[in-house]
Amino acid sequence: FNCAPDVSTRAGGVLPRADNAIQGARGFHPGQQSIGHGYPVAMQLADSPMIRILVVHGAGLERRGLENVATFGALTMADYNAAIARFATDLNLEVSIFHSLDADAIILNLVACKANGVDGVIINPANFTVGQPSLAQAIMDTGLPTVELHISNPANRGVVSDIAPSTTGVVAGFGVRGYLLALQGLRDLIVTSRSS
């Protein structure tokens, strides 16, 4: 599934949306190109609609595994994406993974989310953790359950997130397994809301 199917931006200009998106198996269309792989991450649940989660990677994650390894570990963004795909498969979730160096591209994606059937959002804002009030507002405007995620704990470095007040919850300091915790939490919230 595509939240903003027309365009995404990254440093250097506007690109076709699929150029920097990794789609779950049900949302990946054969004519699209993507960085990485079109991960097969979903299995249809027999008794309820597929839960669809958008995972957003902010600026800075493309440098993971190359810089600040003592803080963030040796895993790369591709490693994160592969782990997210495995976790989603295990939890019977459909995920779409989006990365941008441009906060406005992320905002565009978030604005389109609800209309495109997304049930929840996980955002690792990385370099957008502070100083992005428009991003925080876009998260609130979705009305979707959203988890802010950090591989390390930014509070240990004195960073206070501007994004956290706009989210349902925060997962920080659990490494890549934090994505599993966030996916489980969103799944449980969404299942509960669907049954009430």
| Spatial arrangement of strands, main beta sheet | 3-5-4-6-7-8
* Shape by Cα distribution: globular
Query: What average pLDDT do the residues reach?
Result: 81
Strand count, sense and closure of the main sheet? 6 strands, mixed
Report the C-alpha radius of gyration, rounded. 15 Å
Order of helices and strands: EEEEHHEHEHEEH
SS-based class: alpha/beta
Note the beta-strand portion: 15-25%
Low-confidence stretches: 5-46
Q: Quick one: how many beta strands?
A: 8
Distance between the termini: 26 Å
Helical segment count: 5
Structure described in brief:
The chain is α/β, with parallel strands linked by helices and 196 residues long. The protein has 5 helices and 8 strands, in the order E-E-E-E-H-H-E-H-E-H-E-E-H.
Structure report:
The strands form 2 sheets. This protein has a 6-stranded mixed beta sheet, covered by helices on one side. Strands 1-2 form a two-stranded antiparallel ribbon. With 196 residues, it is α/β, with parallel strands linked by helices. The protein is built from 5 helices and 8 strands, in the order ββββααβαβαββα.
